[in-house]
Amino acid sequence: MRALFFRPTKFILFKTVIRFRFYETQIAKLSCDDSELLWYLSKGLVKDARQVLEKMPSRRDAHGRVVDWTCLVTKYSRGGWVDEARVLFDIMPERNVVSYNAMLSGYLRSGRLSEGCRFFEEMPEKNVVSWTLVLCGLADAGRVEEARRLFEAMPERNIVSWNSMIGGLVKNGDVEGAREVFERMPVKNVVSCNVMIGGYVERCRMDEARGLFDGMVERNVITWTSMVSGYCRSGNVDEGYALFREMPERNVVSWTAMIGGFSWNGFCKEALLLFLEMKGDYGTKPNGETFISLVYACAGIGVPQLGMQLHAQLIVNNWDHDDYGGRLSKGLIHMYSAYGIMDYADFLFMKHSNTHSVQSCNSMINGYIHIGKLEQAQNLFDRLPIRDKISWTSMITGYFSVGEVSKACYLFQIMPDKDAISWTAMISGHIQNELFAEATDIFFKMRSEGVSPLSSTYSVLLGAAGAMSYLDSGRQFHGLLTKTHYELDLFISNSLISMYAKCGEIDDAYRAFSNMSFRDLISWNSMIMGFSDHGLTDKTLKIFEAMVQSGTQPNSVTFLGILSACSHAGLVHKGWEFINAMSDVYGIQPAPEHCICMINLLGRAGKVKEAQELVRRLPFKPDHAVWGALLGICGFGKTNPQVAKYAAKQLLEMDPLNAPAHVVLCNIYSANGLHIEEKALRREMGLKGVRKVPGCSWILVQGRVNVFLSGDILHPDVGEMLLVLFGNMSESQKESSTVLYV
Known about the structure:
This protein has 742 residues and is an all-alpha fold.
């Protein structure tokens, strides 16, 4: 473990070496006379320093000498020799206000604010630059109220003073105060507006930023880039990209802002394509931030070869040496961990052990979990000197993913600081392992601990209630939401629509849909699928029309619901219209599931031959689901054993032990009087050991789930059930009836 992280002594030594090299660089910029003078000043040899100063070549007039000496003060202070600059300042025979400002700037630039303020108070003459320097120093140090008082006391202000005050307030989080000062400005320039826009963008207040942007007479590349970055940061990538395309000029920061905006919002392909376009913009070269965004884009797109190519380019061009604070190496570790290529990730992890962060360790943990190596993940987790909430939650989620519920619960129990995300991971993990009652108990314990559930917490619970048709539980969560949330967000509203639709309460689902102030594609699709599953074809088509009119672009899920609705209603002509419109109008390639809907639709209409032709004309190779659908419709209406044989042959070549295919083909043979073929097929099923999985039904009564399998006679109350159904029956009749009906 010692090799993985900095020791404090090593870190101090590292800082000393860096500082020495910095001073070496600064000394190299000095002339011989400047270096000699600096040496005397550093040793406190004032008399010798004065002699060197007098010997130095300078202009003949007094003003020229003051200018040269002042330049030396600035040069020394910027090089880090503030004390030497002060000694030089003290021995200067003549000074002016510029000299004083140079010394004041040296104090403030080096972070010696208290000395700078004392020096400011002692200055015999001050101008607007002096006041503005102290104003910036106070604001940079977070002493914003002192900066405000100083600003109000300034005898004179220029546009730099106003902009500095606005920038200081923005930097310290007081955007409203900055806006007030901005409104008071007698004259504003593009910098003033940029500072205010930057403040709004930082806090995702894009409406106010856009209002200011639209009212600007003059804009520069910083203005445009700030707006593009702000829209991307707030998640409105489309608006950001539209502004990016309107930019009259772009620089590397603009390109990087848009590439990063795509990458951080999950539009990884678009980020990579934009980078290729950037390379075609001659004169614009990528910087470190560009590559960091590209690394994360490659991680998100999930194509390891692409990420490796990018890494190779970084190495070949020595771009990996210019690693900004280790952020590039962190990105590469994240990328390889996301791919599950842990050998590469571990190599980089060990190579950059001096810049390790919790972020890199978490990437490694998630990478090991992703490929199922929980032991390695646990080993790394145990060795970490610092673990954050992400580390703990990742391990908990990892154990749930492999069914190790007890280990996940133990980790959660000893987790030192639990937040809403970790509680939600516990709830989701129990639901993932079909422990809905336990998940509900954890939810109520979460609330009793004073932790407010997230939208995702409710969404997970509502999704589980819908999947298992637990209507009562779903209603309870909805009631709790109504009491605790003034307004339901999009995420929760979509979950409510899905839950009620799956539980059979389509009217409640539509009520939740109607109450939404904003709907996204998921909202429309959930309602379309809900109406379709309930056989409400007219309402499905009306919702689709409303969706198109709202400007929401349908996707493949939308058409799956529409085609399913047409299949339920036998609307063959409409079905053909929609499946053709998918590719012709909306540019969506029909997938196997869409073709299955069309096969079912044609089968219900008795058009088995037409369905067979559809399968033969498919632009892709049909899978077992498509052949299974074609086989299934051969029993609709007029049976067609030739098509059934053909479909069954194709299906059983792909899946020889497919039980439903054998059963359907047997039933078709039986219905057509082909008993020899039926008997041969049943014999073949016996030889293969093919058995049909029994059907299953369940119902929740008083908190208890009652499960019924086809042919099940193990229920303790089966006798009373049969008595109610059939009256007085013999034992043999009961057994026969149980097999047939239960």
